Amino acid sequence: MNDKNATFCDSWSGLTIDDTVSYINSILLATANAPCAIFAFLSNLAVIVTVARNSSLQRPSNILLCSLAFTDFLTAVTAQPMFIVWRLVLPNSKEPCSNQLLIFYLYYISYVFTAGLSFLNVTIMSFDRHYAVSNPLVYMAEASKEGAIKKVTFAGVVWLIFTALNILVLPPFVRGLSISIWGAVFFVAPPINYVRTWLAIVHHNRQVAENVVSSQQLKAVLQREKKVFRDMLLVTMVLFASLVPGMLGSAIMEHLGYYRELALFLPWARTMSLAPSTINPLIYFVRNEYLRNAFKSMVKI
């Protein structure tokens, strides 16, 4: 590696040659991410297989959760391994700068696709929850497994095409504008929909308390849909919270400039942004008794 490339790669990665602290930091990052990636791979696969093999679990809401589980599964087999490889390559001063950049871009592409698809999924889920809670009996009559599968498949194809166009075709200005538009949708739509859903829950609770709603079927459907709402809200909160460390790090770098401690922190912020793929399946199994029992029955625990 010549001096020019070394200077560029060192400043870009936050790692200096023969830097023991940075080397240890990269090893710790790889050590922390490896078991998380393995767990995310196995646990999300378990969620998908459990729902696929149990027709009683194949409700529209569970199909949407499976779509998010599939996205987290992709994260575990693409973005997380490439992040680990990238961090392990950085301390190797013999590795050409171009190789470091190639590994980073592979990680970046996979992360943009899976992170964006996660936000697209939770946005779809937020609209689904508002409709389900606002009109529970209509939702029960109209929503179907097939419709949910078509919805998430179409969304996945659209996001794949957008990611490919964004990275390979669009000029920088259009790319930045399109990312800003999608980001605004992803950050605004779910909170608004969940507030609307909460207001619908308050309205229904008032009707139940005043005995306006007397149908036992309606009450049962409302209870189920409200529980699904709380589960999906928790998943959405985890996804949003995972971005906070990275946003804080970027804000600090924007105002104070790039300095050594920040260089050591930012990779951990990236690790936090990958954490939902590990946390989400835990939420599914802990909070969904039917899913948990179906999995135990499947593996004969």
TrEMBL record:
It is a multi-pass membrane protein. The chain crosses the membrane at residues 27-51, 63-85, 105-127, 148-170, 176-195, 232-253, 265-286. InterPro entries: GPCR_Rhodpsn, GPCR_Rhodpsn_7TM. The keyword ATP-binding does not apply. Residues 43-284 form the G-protein coupled receptors family 1 profile domain. It is found in: Cell membrane. It comes from the Eukaryota. PROSITE patterns: G_PROTEIN_RECEP_F1_1 (PS00237), G_PROTEIN_RECEP_F1_2 (PS50262). The keyword Transmembrane helix applies. Keywords: Cell membrane, G-protein coupled receptor, Membrane, Receptor, Transducer, Transmembrane, Transmembrane helix. Belongs to the G-protein coupled receptor 1 family. This is G-protein coupled receptors family 1 profile domain-containing protein. It comes from Porites lobata.
